[in-house]
Amino acid sequence: MDPSRRFRPLPGALAALTATARKRGRAAVIGAVQVRWDDPSRLVSLGTTTTRTGARRVTLVDEDDVNQGQYDARDDVLAVSLAGALVRRDTWERLEGLDPAYDGWGDSLDFCRRVWRSGGDVVVVPQARVRHAQESLYARRGEHDGSRRDTYGARRAAEWFHALAYASWWAILPLLIAPFVSAAWRAVIRVVQNDARLLAADLAVPVRVLARLPRLRSSRALVTRTAGRGRRARAAEQALLATGRQVRHDIRVREWGDYETWRAASAPSDVARTEPTSHAVAAVRSGSA
Hints:
This protein is of the alpha+beta class. Helices cover 50% and strands 12% of the residues.
């Protein structure tokens, strides 16, 4: 896909973003709603959050949900995708931009959390819409049409790395052990699901996390260096972290929903299932004759 088609603002998006920037003086990041490239009525992202430990990114809208104005009142969110967002120049320079340790997975969440900790606000503008091609998420390269399963391992490793970057010093060791425990538990689920591809991906996640450890010190230093010390900033960030209900919903929709979609796509069609039966019946009849 042409790079210019990765994302494209819809008419009025920039005006809505700049209007919010003038109205919200504390807003350091003003994000747009991301919609599907081929169907702007379908939502892709309207902000994200994460769990208390930071080990799971949680979306604030179900992907492909129809935009009927039900989210028009939403404003403050923990994070937005920086694709198509406005970022104040002084904030970008003061927070030293994106952390390259994330390799493009979760760097928007990391930057937005540092914005909150430094005393700024992160706002989403539901009236500003941006078409998003989701090339990276689906591993699309040229004519190759990938899937979310292609990037699953990298995304899970980035979520664990995010948890390690934001954890208190005493929680680092438990969080280093947690990916191994999680991988073992998920491996059992993948065996039950008979999903060899995600089984291999889950088992590789702890290895991916360990490979990122040399960059952990610099990432933790960046979080500490760019964070403010105000109680208001930390309280605002904590209030926007995912609730237990949001996490359960996200697991049901993202993981089990993706699995059911894959299983439905992989299952033989009704015609394919009936063909063997039809051939068998025909063979019996011809034998009888």
